[in-house]
């Protein structure tokens, strides 16, 4: 199946699911999820796989075992292309539209320590700053889980304290409801934008 875009029905499905996140609704509309969400996402990631690698298209069910929120279904469909542990490219569609991202979403303590040592290093840290600044100028938004203060062993006035505080580090850009998401041209747009993040991922893999 070639990717031809996500239909409007995909966005409508998630609009409705946010209102009625129930098994009754899901069972009545699972064909819409299958045809308008899951099938296009699989087709999209398949067309990107030649350059970026195979994607994991996430299951639509939430793990509610340890959550106070017991709603059974995710209100978005995401897919992730790994280049390393919890590091890679991301794409998502939901009620707010579509967005793409890249970065590392989790790091064990030893890996996080290596990343912070590289950020602390004047050469490697400045390189990361330069990469982040370049992506920001191109329209990427920097985010990720952060400590409220300096990590242990680093001064609060460190010149790269904002980067050192990250426990995860991602960049993302929002397509919203841009018409491109409904067309085959989305493949090339995501390809172009993911390429922009490749040097960031390379830095994270080299120093993590």
TrEMBL record:
Coiled coil: none
InterPro entries: CHP02453, UCP028451
Any single Pfam family the record assigns to this protein: DUF2461
Top-rank lineage group of the source organism: Bacteria
NCBIfam families xrefs: TIGR02453 family protein
Name the record gives this protein: TIGR02453 family protein
């Amino acid at each position: 199946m070639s990717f031809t875009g996500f239909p409007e029905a995909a966005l409508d499905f998630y609009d409705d699911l946010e209102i009625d996140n129930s098994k009754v609704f899901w069972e009545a509309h699972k064909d819409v999820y299958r045809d308008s969400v899951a099938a296009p996402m699989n087709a999209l990631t398949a067309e990107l796989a030649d350059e970026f690698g195979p994607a994991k298209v996430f299951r639509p069910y939430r793990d509610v075992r340890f959550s106070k929120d017991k709603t059974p279904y995710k209100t978005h469909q995401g897919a992730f292309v790994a280049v390393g542990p919890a590091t890679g490219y991301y794409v998502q569609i939901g009620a707010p539209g579509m967005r793409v991202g890249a970065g590392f979403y989790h790091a064990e303590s030893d890996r996080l320590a290596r990343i912070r040592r590289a950020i602390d290093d004047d050469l490697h840290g400045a390189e990361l700053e330069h990469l982040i600044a370049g992506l920001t100028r191109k329209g990427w938004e920097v985010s990720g889980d952060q400590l409220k203060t300096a990590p242990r062993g680093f001064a609060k006035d460190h010149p790269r304290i904002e980067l050192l505080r990250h426990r995860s580090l991602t960049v993302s850009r929002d397509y919203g409801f841009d018409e491109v998401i409904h067309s085959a041209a989305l493949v090339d747009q995501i390809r172009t934008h993911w390429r922009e993040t490749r040097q960031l991922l390379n830095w994270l893999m080299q120093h993590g």
